[in-house]
Amino acid sequence: MPIDWTALVVFVLLFVLVTVLGFVAVHWRRGDLDLLHEWGLAGGRFGTVVTWFLLGGDLYTAYTFVAVPALMFGAGAIGFFAVPYTIMIYPFVFMVFPRLWSVARQNGYITASDFVRGRYGSRWLALAVAITGILATMPYIALQLVGIQVVIAALGIEGAGWLGDLPLIIAFVILAAFTYTSGLRAPAAIAIVKDTLIWIAVIAAVVAIPIQLGGYGKIFAAIPQAKLLLAPGPANALLPYSAYFTLALGSALALFLYPHAMTGVLSASSRGAISRNAALLPAYSFLLALIALLGFMALAVGVDKAPQFADFAKAYPRNFAVPALFISVFPSWFVGVAFAAIAIGALVPAAIMSIAAANLWTRNIYREFINPTCTPAEEAKMAKVVSLVVKFGALVFIVAIPLQYAINLQLLGGMWIIQTLPAVIIGLYTRWFHERALLLGWLVGIAAATGLAAMQGFTPMTAVPIAGYVLPSYTALVTLVLNFAVAIVLTPIFNAAGAARGLDETSLEHYG
User: Fold this and answer.
1) Assuming Cys at both sites, which of 79, 277, 309, 417 could form a disulfide with 72, CB separation 3.0 to 4.6 Å?
2) pLDDT digit string (tens) for 342-384?
3) Residue 237 φ then ψ, to 5°
């Protein structure tokens, strides 16, 4: 594709703007960045509005902007599962996460593993949660690069080998620099710009494109019937649409267990800020529904049949749909705005994810097992360095490994991180489970999820046999049930055997 200079100039100008903002953010609500709490959680000073932008920027990523409509474009209505799952999650957040915030604030916890360590007195269970969080986050960071890769290619900047990846490398060097200097304050500040640009781009698309095509009726009329409706599943399916609703439910349960979501929650200034955000964040679900419809709009416009996008589509199957749609419909200057929104939408979550992974490594592995006597300044410095390692590891990951393998590993992310739910979420309400039973349940869940995914070509679904029928289900949910079953069975066994239990350092009043 030829270089679109107008779009490129607008893109670069907006990218420069957020770069400057990322470095200036070091002075915003200034704190001692030689303390991990200040660098990694911004001192827990973010109110309702900033937390709203931070969590929105954290959870609704560039890959979401590209991949959800791409799934609608390629597979049809199944891609809409992302909308109900983001609706289901917020009542869960409203009920659970103010409680987590309270106990974390009372005890100085920075990560979910900190809470598990304090609640169960088990450094090994805390280590399991930390390792799971880091593993689940790494490919997620790498896949933020997909959004940047796609829009850079759509702008016409292409090349072979390292030359082709140079713009991507520059973007992540910038990300690494302002994250190192400003910590969580940088992505929080940039999230405000990112969300504003995405709202502008999406609203413009859902208004202008239907007008151009003659209305939504004509858009839906142009979509093949097979893509408009959910497939009922195999003939012997116990429930016809179980794949859809288990995918939505499992994704909802996993979402806020990711370390970057935890970091966003724990950076809030009060319980009320979290509760209010649980009520306000469904606005992003509305936005996500509009984003999903872009996949159908791309089909209606016919980007899959346009010869100018043939090479682009070959390089980025399905993921080319949204950039091609904007190029087909909008003037170059607005294409630059939309593409900048996608690229900046990669920087914000990638920064938060790298900070969250660094917090886990530093607090729950380095300080717990490697250097227990480290000073607060050494702890913060270690986190900053690890945040660089994580980002550049993700960069090498996406540049050196074929994209399909990165995506396959990302599918494991949800299956892995959901295995921490019994220890983290149930632990907020009861300590009935024995920590050894939880650790073995986690191990069985992780092994089963990884094994099932590998046996099925890393697809996220499993057909569970039940009395001659099958129940197509999201593998994460199936293995979570197995995890719980192991923990439930083994807890009374460990108790009867007199297995020692760790000391709970939390108190009832800590939970608010």
Assistant:
1) 79
2) 888 888 888 899 999 999 999 999 999 999 999 999 999 999 9
3) -70, 135
Compute how many other C-beta atoms are within 10 angstroms of the C-beta atom of residue 451: 12
Ordered by start, the domain boundaries in the chain are 5-402
Question: Quick one: pLDDT band at residue 400, thresholds 50, 70, 90?
Answer: low
Express as a percent the part of the chain with pLDDT over 90: 47
Would you state the structure tokens that stand for residue 185, as one six-digit string?
């304050």
CB 250 within 8 A of CB 480: yes
Q: What CA–CA distance (Å, rounded) separates 459 from 415?
A: 11
Does residue 237 sit in helix, strand or coil? strand
Which amino acid is located at 415 in the chain? M
Residue 470: other Cβ atoms inside 10 A: 18
Distance CA 152, CA 340 (A): 10
Picking from 353, 40, 357, the residue whose alpha carbon sits closest to that of residue 184 is: 40
How does 188-217 read in b/e, with b if 16+ C-beta sit within 10 Å?
Answer: bbbbbbbbebbbebbebbbeebbeebeeee
Phi, psi angle pair for 442, to nearest 5°: -60, -45
DSSP string of 48-109, one letter each residue? HHHHHHHHHHHHS-HHHHHHHHHHHHHH-GGGGGHHHHHHHHHHHHHHHHHHHHHHHHHHT-
Backbone angles phi, psi at 393, to 5 degrees: -65, -45
Task: List the one residue out of 61, 90, 137 whose CA is nearest residue 357.
Answer: 137
pLDDT value at 266 more than 60: yes
Phi-psi region of 178 (alpha: psi -120 to 50; beta: other; left: phi over 0): alpha
Could you tell me how far CA 169 lies from the centroid of its own chain? Answer: 21
Q: What is the pTM of this model?
A: 0.92
Residue 461 three-state SS: strand
Average pLDDT over residues 203-230: 90
CATH 2.60.40.10 given to domain 5-402: no
The residue among 420, 484, 409 whose CA lies nearest residue 450 is 409
Q: Is 25 exposed, middle or buried (0-12, 13-18, 19+ CB in 10 A)?
A: buried
| Distance from C-alpha of 86 to C-alpha of 301, rounded to nearest angstrom | 28
**Helix 161-182 to helix 332-361 angle, to the nearest 10 degrees?**
60
Give all strands (DSSP E) within 179-245, no chain letters.
none
Q: Which pLDDT tens digit goes with each residue over 211-222?
A: 998 999 999 999
**Count of residues in the chain:** 512
Q: Quick check: 401 pLDDT over 80?
A: no
Distance from C-alpha of 377 to C-alpha of 200, rounded to nearest angstrom: 41
Give the model confidence (pLDDT) of 167-202 as tens digits: 777 877 888 888 888 899 988 889 888 888 888 998
